[in-house]
């Protein structure tokens, strides 16, 4: 299996690469600038400059793109559309590091986390744009995609426990009633899905045990 991680120099990207490399997987980091990951193989290229030829030899592409400034939030949609177009109709799986704001908090799937009165206003534009990108992804029947949402509290410096619980469209909580997961445990879930490929054209979610 050959895996490529896009935007691999980011906090999530680096841990995903490390998890893949530690498992002995053939892993390539796609980065801008100097490679800061554990991958020995590198494609030095901006996401928006990637071509179908760049990606054609991989079995799995992991999209760890993220942006937070108001003038770039639209790129959550445009970057995902580009990647979908590049792997359209091919036997290449596209795994996406998603957000928690679009997870549902009721069984009817009518209310999302970002709709809550306690959801911070500062994060609503980001959650909205990521949610829109997911909705557009759902329409891509020509792509073998999987969107993986973290728990509501996604901890960059959280401990690696080595375990997690898998869910679907609804916000999960752990045994303490908390919706939390570390980037390291999220990386485990991401590489498990990369290896197993059991949730094609689905959104899944993860929380610590």
UniProtKB/TrEMBL annotation:
One of the record's GO molecular function terms: oxidoreductase activity, acting on the CH-NH group of donors, NAD or NADP as acceptor
UniProt xrefs under SUPFAM superfamilies: NAD(P)-binding Rossmann-fold domains (SSF51735)
Pfam families assigned to the protein according to its UniProt record, in alphabetical order: NAD_binding_10 (PF13460)
InterPro entries: NAD(P)-bd_dom (IPR016040), NAD(P)-bd_dom_sf (IPR036291), Polyketide_Oxido-like (IPR051606)
Annotated NAD(P)-binding domain residues: 8-176
Endpoints of the signal sequence: none
Protein's name in the database: NAD(P)-dependent oxidoreductase
Source organism: Velocimicrobium porci
